[in-house]
Design a protein that fits this description.
single chain, about 300 residues, alpha+beta, D-amino Acid Aminotransferase, Chain A, domain 1, D-amino Acid Aminotransferase, Chain A, domain 2, five-stranded antiparallel beta sheet, about 25% helix, about 25% strand, binds pyridoxal-5'-phosphate, amino-acid biosynthesis, transferase, L-leucine-2-oxoglutarate transaminase activity, Class-IV_PLP-Dep_Aminotrnsfr
Length: about 300
């Protein structure tokens, strides 16, 4: 497992503080009750310098997560964009992972969060391929998890909140314990849900399929980007509830996520997917996605925020 490699500065509520000083109290509400909202955003090293991929959409999702949980953030998206750009420049990193966090701090006793101060942090650090260096080329071996995703109208799956990741931790730890790189959790209805931190796509007879936003998965920004790229390339795409067996029957399967980028899946539950190697549609989408993110393919949708 990769360790965090420290950078120099973390933005905290309007100021840059040294990495080691960005601490919170052990009795902060978010520590006790898992109530921090967060994001994961990648900044890529492009020919025009560091550029953050779909920063505005990530910050919009962050503020939506906060809204659902009645957390008032006193910064606008444009202020957070400016702070993120400065963060990358100050830390002198070319590519990195940015982890915006809105934390309910120390103040009130008990579970009711109202009254605890709201603190906003922007840390960043260099981070390579999430599922290992080989994963993007060779694909990974995955399993269907014995843990399902949440039922709609229990814990909101579309909010990216720390507490939701208890589910992700169980899925991921079980997969690793059983020798797989990643687990795919089914939705409460038994259809394909998502990975511990990724959305899932299937290619079947030339059509790209992914599950709908039905209250049991996160609305991934990479997922939306891949659907857009597929549309640009004329690849037919459908959103519908995918039965588990279609995973095994698929020609190609891949994960999408900011951390995982577009990672092919070569087997599920030890059943080979398609030819057991990266399929042609996966490859095409991956090349386009990473090409746009790294500035080597035209940024035709305005997805990059340049930092300098
Ligand atoms: C549970 C879950 N699903 C899907 C995703 C993919 O989302 P995105 O593409 O916005 O990173 C993530 C990552 O944030 C996640 O944690």
């Amino acid at each position: 497992m990769s360790r965090i490699s420290e950078t120099q500065w973390i933005w905290r509520d309007g100021q840059f503080v040294p990495w080691a000083d960005a601490t919170i109290h052990v009795l902060s509400h978010s520590v006790q009750f898992g109530s921090s909202a967060f994001e994961g955003v990648r900044c890529y090293n492009t020919p025009k310098g560091p550029a953050i991929f779909r920063l505005r959409e990530h910050l919009e999702r962050l503020l939506h997560s906060c809204k659902i949980y009645r957390m008032d953030v006193k910064y606008t998206i444009d202020e957070l964009i400016a702070a993120s750009r400065e963060l990358v420049v100050r830390n002198n990193v070319e590519s990195c992972y940015i982890r915006p966090m809105v934390v309910r701090g120390y103040g009130t006793a008990g579970m009711v969060p109202i009254g605890s101060p709201i603190e906003v942090y922007l840390p960043c650090w260099p981070w390579g391929a999430y599922l290992g260096d080989e994963a993007l080329d060779a694909g990974v071996d995955a399993c269907v998890s014995s843990w399902q995703r949440v039922q709609p109208n229990t814990i909101p799956a579309m909010a990216k909140i720390a507490g939701n990741y208890l589910s992700g931790q169980l899925i991921k730890m079980e997969a690793l314990a059983n020798g797989y790189a990643e687990g795919i959790a089914l939705s409460p209805s038994g259809m394909v849900g998502e990975g511990s931190g990724q959305n899932v796509f299937v290619v079947s007879n030339g059509t790209l399929l992914t599950g709908p936003l039905d209250g049991s998965i996160l609305g991934g920004i990479t997922r939306a980007s891949i659907i857009q790229i597929a549309q640009d390339l004329g690849i037919p795409t459908k959103e519908f509830h995918i039965p588990r067996e279609m995973l095994y029957m698929a020609d190609e399967v891949f994960f999408t996520g900011t951390a995982a980028e577009l990672t092919p899946v070569r087997s599920i539950d030890k059943i080979q997917i398609g030819a057991g190697k990266v399929g042609p549609i996966t490859k095409q989408l991956q090349q386009q996605y990473l090409g746009i993110a790294k500035g080597t393919v035209e940024d035709r949708h305005g997805w990059l925020t340049h930092c300098k």
